[in-house]
Amino acid sequence: MITGGADPGKAVAAPAKEATAAVMSAIDGRMPGMARSLRIEGFSAAGRPVTTPATKFGGQPVWLTGPQWPISAAWNRPMRFVAQIELGPVLGAAGQGKTAYVFVTHADHEEDDFFDPDVIDPDGGENAVIVQPGGDYTGPVRPLATGPGLYDREGSAVEFTVDLRPVDEPDSMADEELEALPTADRDRYVERIDGDKIGGTPLFFQGDDWPDGGPWRLLLQLDSNWVPFHLNLGASPRLFAFVSEAGARGRLLVQDS
Question: Are 132 and 65 in contact (CB under 8 A)?
Answer without folding.
Answer: yes
